[in-house]
Amino acid sequence: MSFLPYLSGVLAGALNGLFGTGGGIVLVPLLLRVHRLPAQRAFATSLAIILPLSAVTLLLNLRQTPLDWQAALPYLLGGAAGGFLAGKWLKKLPVLWLRRLFGALLLVSGIRSVLS
User: Fold this and answer.
1) What is the dihedral of CA 25, 28, 30, 35, to 10 degrees?
2) Crossing angle for the helix pair 4-19 and 23-33, nearest 10 degrees?
3) Average predicted confidence (pLDDT) for the chain
4) Do 3 and 59 contact (CB within 8 A), yes or no?
5) What is the DSSP letter of 63?
6) pTM, to two decimals
7) CB atoms within 10 A of CB 34
8) What distance in Å separates the CA atoms of residue 73 and residue 70, rounded to the nearest whole number?
């Protein structure tokens, strides 16, 4: 039995806990290469994994730091709308463009992190 999924899960959870994001950076490539899932299924599966990770991180953070629900609400509503639209588009988006968008997101995020 391979421990790679468990170790990748630990890394995804740690990235999620430290940065509030990043699980997909670990999980999507793993699901594509190791498990050979089709791209749309890998992205959807990654989201299903990240949801409980985010819930655990949120609960732990709420115990340490109060959350500003008033500030969070517009982002939550906008994020829900964006998530709904992206969920509708996921099946229709060609895999090549899905990979390009993901790569561009990683590139832009990396450049912003290095320069800030």
Assistant:
1) 170
2) 160
3) 86
4) no
5) H
6) 0.70
7) 12
8) 6
